[in-house]
Amino acid sequence: MALSLGARTTLVAGLLVALIFLFLGVRELRSAPRLANKPSQSTAASATPAASVVLFAVATRAIDTGETITAAMVRNAAADPGRFPNIATPPEVVGKVATQPIPAGAMIARTSVDLTTKLAVRVPMGMRAMSIDTTAEIAVAGLVRPGDRVDVQVVYPGADAINGTRGDGESRAQALLQMVQVLAVGDLIVGTPAASGAQGAMSSAPPPARTVTLALSPDQVSSLSLAKATGSLYLSLRNPSDNQQVAVASVQSSVPARRAAAQPIAAPIVLPRPAARSAPASIDLVVGERHEVIYPGSSKP
User: Fold this and answer.
1) What is the pTM of this model?
2) What region does 66 belong to: left with phi over 0, alpha with psi -120 to 50, or beta?
3) How many domains does the chain have?
4) Which CATH number is 58's domain given?
5) Which ranges of the chain would DSSP assign to H, the alpha helix?
6) Which residues constitute the domain of residue 104?
7) pLDDT tens column, 1-14
């Protein structure tokens, strides 16, 4: 049966529409996986940096071995912990001691700092730690703290201090050391947090310390050892920004001039002359009627 011209036209148009829908359907099916993967990839790309980036510690200046690291010595640097597994964060290094030199701008490794609170690692290289016994009078009313800088004075007692008299003189005071670093006060070591009560560190005053530990050069250790054995030591607290070495003259007690002038000149000692011995008188022996001179006596007057 032959189709009319209108039917054939309708059939061709239907086939064209079907082909168009088929083409569009195939194209959509091919592009659907790409569109489905794009959100996950963008989400992963945005989530990966946030999950992997860590703020590491970088030295803002060169740090020497034995130096206590402060917050001003480090800055934050974002990096992937997978690439730098041994790099420390700022909270891990602040207050700790460098066990090896750290260049400026270098990331600080955990192996470059000591995480303990031992005093030995906090002694600067080439220096020695030496303790002195203190009282409130010696240690500026107990206000000296670890990390402070102090001067050390020594008083050598003379005859006036020993005898308790002002006129004998000879006591001497002099500045022994200047700008000495305090490493520890009692058990509190520089760079370590102070023990605090329930209300914080300022709620209660620390107990008075019986010793102050100083950082000294080997020559200063010898000078301080001799001063400890022969004199009395006193500490004076310095401003942290005051680094000036001051020439200080020695002070010595002396005899007042008026007393020295009034002292009498010792007179020569005159021994008494021995008394003259008197000559004995004559001795007579009388027996009955017999009379005899035994010793006639001295003829000298």
Assistant:
1) 0.51
2) left
3) 2
4) 3.90.1210.10
5) 5-52, 90-93, 159-163, 218-230, 257-262
6) 54-115
7) 566 777 777 777 77
Residues 6+ apart with CB under 8 A from 153: 173, 174, 175, 176, 233, 234, 235, 236
The rounded distance, in Å, linking the Cα atoms of 120 and 183 is 10
Same domain, 132 and 250: yes
Closest by CA to 124, choosing from 72, 73, 71, 180, is 180
Partners of residue 236 on adjacent β-strands: 151
Q: Are residues 100 and 132 in the same domain?
A: no
pLDDT attached to residue 269: 60
pLDDT at 47 over 50: no
Cβ contacts of 114 within 8 Å, gap of 6 or more: 96, 97, 98, 99, 121
Specify the amino acid at residue 279. Answer: A
Cβ 213 vs Cβ 130: under 8 Å: yes
